[in-house]
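Suppose you are handed only these lines of text.
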Amino acid sequence: MKWLYLAAAVVAPAQAALRFGCASLTIQRLDPLVEPGRTPSSHLHQIVGGNAFQPNMTGDIGEQGSCTTCVFAEDFSNYWTAVMFFKHTNGSYKRVPIMANDALPSGIKGGMTVYYTQQDFNSNGNTKIKSFPPGFRMTVGAPTHTAEQTGLRFVCLDTKSTRFPELTEFPTKACKGGIMTVHHFPACWDGKTLDPPDHQSHMYNTVKNAFQNSGPCPATHPVRMPQLAYETLWDTAQFASMWPKDGSNPFVMSYGDNKGYGTHADYVFGWKGDSLQRAMDSSCMFNACENGKPLKSQVVSSMNKCAVKDFVGESIDGWLPELPGHSMK
Ligand SMILES: *[C@@H]1O[C@H](CO)[C@@H](O)[C@H](O)[C@H]1NC(C)=O
Ligand SMILES: *[C@@H]1O[C@H](CO)[C@@H](O)[C@H](O)[C@H]1NC(C)=O
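From them, the structure of the protein bound to 2-acetamido-2-deoxy-beta-D-glucopyranose can be written out as follows.
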């Protein structure tokens, strides 16, 4: 009994959970992971994180950046998703602005809420959570998908705090508080591959919805990594008066999808040194991880100031005759 107790104590769950804001870094047609070097890429993305972001990224970006839009000053990772547009019945498109999450400090410009949790909020499953290594990259979902995807959800917001129900596709009615897109990444790694050609086969997904207990990692992908998730809040409410009379959903993602099954997200790891591992080994929760306990953090004005140059130089605002990059449609 005593032995068992001691063994359990050694792997005692460290219950760190990170939830933090990252302001918008840039909104451009770039995709250094799936279309490296291509300027412009096929569709528009909204990107947050470190300023090493550029059309073709290689190496350890945690060592390349000089600023980040995230609250944790050592997190030079890049996080991105597609962008939402409103399609008017007259055929014109307008980009849907991104709202700040009211669970975060006020004043953050656009961007996303990023989570790194253990197996779930209540348990690490008695497994050490291993940080992603330098050079690690992955995607979840794909623009070509035409059926429901694991861990990728839409929430019709009543207020900014609404979190349920999670929908597998775009809401089909006007949402009073906007729409939230949620991207949960797989958390089980094969332990070997930093970034395979498909950006996905090195990872295994044990999650379905929300932040539920995700079960053990399989033998093929035995290494439990942090459960990474993004939340993005889209200010769709300002288009409510222009909702089509036939009741059809007027919102469309930047790759031309108004159903939502092609929703996808990208991640390039870029935490400096062992900072993410130190955080996951601690027991801090959310903003209690700031101010050196154990992570260095920065104020909102510094987050908002970090940016990258406009590599593409196309107009993405105002009423547009087509989605950026979709002129052949
Ligand atoms: C990206 O940069 C790397 C390193 O400089 C280079 O080897 C590679 O060919 C580049 N890829 C593209 C598609 O430009
Ligand atoms: C569509 O409607 C919007 C909003 O009224 C307007 O600004 C835009 O110019 C219209 N587009 C066309 C092609 O008429």
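What can we learn from it? Residues 88, 90-92, 319 surround 2-acetamido-2-deoxy-beta-D-glucopyranose (ligand 2) (CB under 6 Å). The helical segments are 2-10, 275-281, 300-305.
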